[in-house]
Specification:
Blueprint lengths: L4 E5 H12 L5 E2 L2 E2 L1 H17 L3 E5 L24 H25 L3 E3 L6 H11 L5 E5 L12 E5 L5 E2 L1 H8 L6 H8 E2 L4 E2 L2 E2 L9 E2 L2 H8 L8 H7 L1 H14 L18 H11 L2 H4 L2 H8 L3
Parallel strand pairs: 1-4, 1-6, 4-5, 6-7
Antiparallel strand pairs: 2-3, 7-8, 9-10, 11-12
Helix pairs in contact: 1-2, 1-3, 2-3, 6-7, 6-9
């Protein structure tokens, strides 16, 4: 499969690289470089896989407009981390900033998109909506992206490198991708801390239950009996209020996401050579002719 536009969910890709190479802790003069090196390898792989002619890097904002709607949005993501995870993050996060602020511009890639208050998901959603006639491959590990799948838009999982197309989605879930946002609105999103429709509990001392993804999917497909508590909760006034709130959180792009204009890339051989010299990546320098062809360096 060939795709002209490759959209990289940068944070998702860098976290995937962090976990895959974290044990090796490659460094140059005691400065950790393993995420930077892994990013270059990932970019090489993605360009070989997609044969894309232009790359878009989607960035997350430090602030979130969604928190104004749902105050606990993504609140638990950094909780319950182990000491090892904290140590790894302390080594990796400065490299994340170097990649977005130094490495990518040095390579000559021009389409680095982000906007205050919006997420990479919103950037990706906006580009997919505005460039409907282009063949697009999204590299991310976020299942929210499924709503963007079309005959022109596919995904590459940032963690597993597996392709995921509209046909894969339909075969797995039995619905069309444009219905996925309704599934997420009903069932919530555990990774973002968004709860689904609450199911009434006769005993107030017991833990509050919510409709989850599977229950929401069954409801959408008409496979939930009207007598079940989940079905009744979804149909209730309170349930509809939760669904409407969640829609504003899960539909991509988020309301107000600005437009982005994709420009031709000008990746530079000299830029890659400087990066390899700066970080001590001799294996790439020694294979520069192959890298020039894959990254279309000039």
């Amino acid at each position: 499969m060939e795709s002209r536009v490759l959209i990289i969910d940068l944070l998702a890709v860098l976290h995937a690289v962090k976990f895959s190479l974290g044990k090796h802790r490659l460094s140059n003069k005691d400065k950790p470089t393993f995420v930077i090196y892994g990013f270059l390898l990932k970019l090489n792989f993605l360009l070989r896989k997609t044969k894309a002619s232009v790359v878009v890097y989607a960035l997350d904002s430090d602030t979130s407009k969604r928190k104004k709607i749902y105050s606990v949005y993504k609140e638990k993501r950094k909780q319950n981390r182990t000491d090892k995870q904290i140590e790894l993050d302390n080594l990796a996060l400065p490299q994340f900033k170097e990649i977005s602020g130094h490495v990518i511009p040095k390579l000559g890639y021009r389409n680095v998109f982000g906007a205050e208050g919006f997420e990479a998901d919103d950037v990706i959603g906006r580009v997919c909506k505005d460039y409907k006639d282009e063949q697009i491959a999204i590299c991310s590990s976020d299942h929210d992206m499924y709503q963007l799948l079309t005959n022109n838009v596919c995904m590459i999982n940032a963690k597993t490198n597996n392709w995921y197309t509209i046909n894969h989605f339909i075969n797995e879930y039995g619905i069309k991708p444009n219905m996925w946002k309704r599934v997420k609105a009903i069932g919530g999103c555990s990774s973002d801390g968004v709860k689904g429709v609450p199911i009434p509990q006769p005993d107030p001392t017991k833990k509050q239950m919510h409709v989850a993804e599977k229950g929401a999917l069954n409801y959408i497909k008409g496979e939930t009996a009207s007598t079940t508590k989940a079905h009744q909760a979804i149909e209730s006034r309170e349930g509809k209020d939760v669904i409407n709130r969640n829609k504003s959180l899960v539909i991509l792009p988020f309301r107000g996401t600005p437009k982005f204009t994709i420009r031709p890339d000008h990746p530079k051989e000299l830029g890659l050579r400087h990066i390899c010299e700066e970080y001590g990546f001799k294996s790439i320098t020694n294979d520069i002719e192959r890298w020039k062809k894959i990254l279309r360096l000039r």
